[in-house]
Amino acid sequence: MKLKIFSLLFISLLFTSCNSQEKGVETISPAMYADKLKSTPKAQLLDVRSPEEYSGQHLKGAANVDWNGGDFEVKAGKYDKSKPIFVYCMVGGRSKKAANKLHSMGFTQIYDLQGGIMKWDAEKYPTVKANESKGMDIVEYNKMLSTDKKVLIDFYAEWCGPCKKMEPFLKQMTTDMQKDVTIIRIDVDKNKELAQHLNIDALPTLIIYDDKKPQWRHVGFISEDDLKKQLK
Fold it and tell me: Which segments within 49-189 are labelled E, that is strand?
């Protein structure tokens, strides 16, 4: 009887293990991602952001297959399902959805870049960049902090869902709290070098300065009430 139970447990564990392997989607760090790209001949690499984002900056060798383009499945279906495929976006949201879709389409080995191209940038891995404005530099940034008021910096992007959700109340706070707080919103897509210099690798990122010194830093959505508590 004990042998039978052991056998059933072994088969169950084996089945679970096989199912886990069959998932085929691995979200991996920039370091592992870079290593796997390097060791994979003619790697299938998909940038699933918009064409505008892709044209501004992308990983070398990446093809642009926009997750929100309406024809993702058609374009992605042209790739070899029996070989590894790599996906990435800006911070990881779209690539996660794309990776799951690729799995449902029959791809068996999918690598998703953890933290997206922002994390890749932050860890100083190379990309192909267009000839674009560098945006604000750290000297200009520090000048904005030269005030006797508290300064709230909001690093955001137009494509960032939580950023859009916070935008209305941040704009209202800019007016309502102008006597005590200076609120500045910085688009990371237009200020990539600054974002990299300040280690901004996820959005939204909010930083509160007092007397030019960072006093508080938050990544991700925060409610209006909770944010106001930090500014008291």
Answer: 57-58, 63-64, 85-88, 110-113, 128-129, 150-156, 181-187
Q: Rounded to whole angstroms, how far apart are CA atoms 100 and 102?
A: 5
- How many C-beta atoms lie closer than 10 Å to residue 157's C-beta? 20
Is residue 164 very low, low, confident or very high in pLDDT (cuts 50, 70, 90)?
Answer: very high
CATH superfamily of 2-129: Rhodanese-like domain (3.40.250.10)
Sign of CA dihedral 9, 14, 15, 21: positive
Q: Does the structure show a pLDDT above 80 at 11? A: no
Give the sign of the dihedral formed by CA 163, CA 164, CA 166, CA 171: positive
Stretch(es) of the chain classified as CATH 3.40.250.10: 2-129
pLDDT beyond 80 at 146: yes
Q: Average pLDDT of 119-136?
A: 86
CATH number of 138-230: 3.40.30.10
Question: What pLDDT was estimated at residue 54?
Answer: 94
Read off the tokens for 118.
């922002």
**Residues designated catalytic:** 160, 163
pLDDT score at 134: 74
